[in-house]
Design a protein that fits this description.
Blueprint lengths: L3 H10 L2 E4 L5 H16 L4 E2 L17 E5 L7 H21 L5 E9 L5 E4 L9 E8 L12 E5 L2 E9 L6 E5 L5 E3 L6 E9 L10
Antiparallel strand pairs: 1-9, 2-3, 3-4, 4-11, 5-10, 6-9, 6-11, 7-8, 7-10
Bound molecules: N-oxalylglycine (OGA) and nickel (II) ion.
Nickel (II) ion binds next to loops.
């Protein structure tokens, strides 16, 4: 993870970071296989917007299906990504004094046609989310498959910062309270592991 220095300075200077080799290609591939296996076993559920009593199943806002990961699950790639996010968390805390306590991670699978409208990851009930991480798992993703992540400029909200194709091995990291973003509709199933570094303790009643 030599890119960690680049990651830290990009987060500090502009609030977001992209890399095509932050995580080993083999890990990304294994995560994809584990995710597909668990999808086929029916372990995913529709993503919801909001938490707890505010839950609303709003497919017009957010059309993906998710599966929360657990560091104790018997899936080797899942265990490995938690190890790596643990190291990243230590680096964030050393560099930014963020007091991060844990990372929450889920698979997200957007069916063909699904999207996620423009939003911030840190809203009312989620101020504990400090840093967002998205790692894409899609082999052979083409421009025509769509599903780009669009990042918007916090200083000039109508300005796009970047359109990012969800290619396998690509990781995007940004400050959750700062960077508005959206997922454009995709034309085939779109896979990622998405997560947040948080400054609160682990909750056992994760609702979303
Ligand atoms: C999210 C999100 C982006 C992506 O889950 O909050 O914005 O590219 N995901 O999947
Ligand atoms: Ni988001």
């Amino acid at each position: 993870m030599q890119s960690i220095d680049k990651l830290l300075s990009a987060l500090e200077n502009k609030g977001w970071f992209i890399s095509d080799d932050l995580f080993p290609a083999d890990l990304i591939h294994q995560l994809f296989l584990e995710g597909q296996q668990r999808w086929e076993q029916g372990q995913f559920h529709d993503a919801r917007v909001g938490r707890k009593q505010h839950l609303a199943q709003a497919a017009h806002i957010r059309g993906d299906s998710i599966l929360w990961l657990d560091a104790n699950d018997e899936y080797p790639a899942t265990q490995e990504i938690f190890k790596l996010t643990g190291l990243m968390q230590e680096a964030f805390n050393r560099y930014f004094f963020l007091g991060l306590k844990h990372a929450e991670l889920h698979y997200a699978r957007y069916a063909s046609g699904a999207a996620y409208t423009r939003h911030l990851d840190q809203h009312k009930n989620t101020s504990a989310r400090k840093i967002t991480l998205v790692s894409y798992l899609n082999p052979d993703w083409k421009q025509a498959d769509g599903g780009e992540l669009v990042l918007y400029d916090p200083l000039n909200p109508s300005q796009e910062l970047q359109r990012i194709l969800p290619l396998a091995g690509r990781t995007v990291i940004f400050r959750s309270e700062l960077i508005e973003h959206e997922v454009l509709p995709c034309k085939k199933p779109r896979w990622s592991v998405t997560g947040w570094f948080r400054d609160d303790e682990i909750m056992f009643d994760i609702a979303a």
